[in-house]
Structures are given as C-alpha cells and as structure tokens.
3-oxoacyl-ACP reductase
Amino acid sequence: MTIDDPGGILAGRTAVVTGAGRGIGRATAVALARAGVATIALLARSAGQLEGTARLVEAAGARAHVRPVDLGDPTQIADVVAELTGTIGDVDILINNAATVAPLGPTATRSAASMLDAFTLNTIAPVLVTGALLPGMVARGWGRVVNVSSGIVAHPAVMIGGSTYAATKAALETQTISMAAEYADTGVTINAYRPGSVDTAMQEWIRAQDPDQVGHVLHDRFVASHASGRLLTPEASAEGLVGHLTRADNGQIWDVTDPS
C-alpha cells in the first residue's frame, strides 16, 4: 500500500491510535507506519493484542509504544495522555477508533448503565483525548484528528436493535463538526471517517450473539452481509483513512468511498 503524500507531510510525525489492538485500529496503525509516521502510540484494553500490533508497526518502519488503557473510564484519560506526551513527545496525529457496539437488542431491554457505558467510550472518550492533545497541536500550528464513525449514522433505521450505537456515532459526528469549527484556522484539522462495512471482530461478535437476545433482524443482517463476501478488509478501510490525512480538509464526514 502506498499513500500519496505530497511533500512527505506525514513523514516523521508522531501518532496516537486508540482501539489499536485489532481490526481497523491495527490496520490504521500499520498504514500510518508505511506512510512514514515515525512513532505510533497504541492504546486499547488488551496488552496482548497491542503487542501484536506493535510488531507489525515496527516491521513497517515505525517505533511503537504500547499503552494498555480502558478509555471507557474517563478518569484514566488525562493521566494516560500526560504519560504519553512525556514518553513519545509531541503528538501530531490522533485517530480515535476505540468503540463498542453494545448494548444490542430491543430498546425496552436497555439499561441506563449499558447506554452510559456506550456513550462514555464511543463519544465522550474521543472528545476528552482530543481535548487533552489539542493545545499542543495548536501551539505547533499543525495536527490531524480523525474520529472513526459509522455509515449507520446516515441510515439508522436499518440497524434495528443497535440504536444506541447509532446514536453514539451520530453524537460523535456532531462533536467533530463543532470542534472543527472551534479550531478552524489553527492548522489543526478535525474530521470524522465512516469506514464502511469491514470484516472485524465487532462484526464477528454480533454474528455470534443469540438472535433471540439481539433481535433476528439485526443478527440476520450481519450474517447476510458476511455471507455476501462484500465486507471490506480492515487494511482497505485504513488506506482510505490515512490517505485523507495529507489534505487540509476540516469539519468533514469522510466516507471510505470518497477519493483520498
């Protein structure tokens, strides 16, 4: 994979990728390394998965820094960001990818706690991590923030049983556009990326659920999508994301189908 990077704008940069243990996060970290990013901090809950990503990142030519963390616990975020900047230095690129698709199932079965957990990880954590890194980016006059969203925001009615997930991603896109306007003309761009239907562990987890619990419509949709053979690879989706980083777009909702 070759990213078109006129002037080598990504070369030598330092990045943070959340949810980097597998799937789109792992593939994005590797794509950043191949595009010339020099140092990549890898964040997720599972240390073992992060170590696997680190080996791939280093094989692609970048230095990897592994930091296990539960971003669903907001009290950890400020300390983790401070530790990272003290260890790897100034952060130029932030990819907020960590997310959960739970809770799934009929709306009447939702608990307040499960919904709060989803919003905390999917919407609040990206804003807090971004907020912690933005002052440094603004001070240096350059930065790239990408919040990984979902195409389901455009068509929430098709994800019956997954309304909480759709709502968290819609809120994330709203936050993205608002933050982008707030930091316009600073040299820092903030955009969202809809990665497409990707063959990830999240999709596998949904297919493995009891249809009676998550709902037959939702379960059958994901089973049929996988059976069609049309799911993207994480690598293909990550290429689209990283390709956008060389541009100065701000406040945009990118889609994997957009030219990068």
Q: What stands out?
A: The chain has one domain: 6-196+234-247. Residues 112-140 form the longest helix (29 residues).
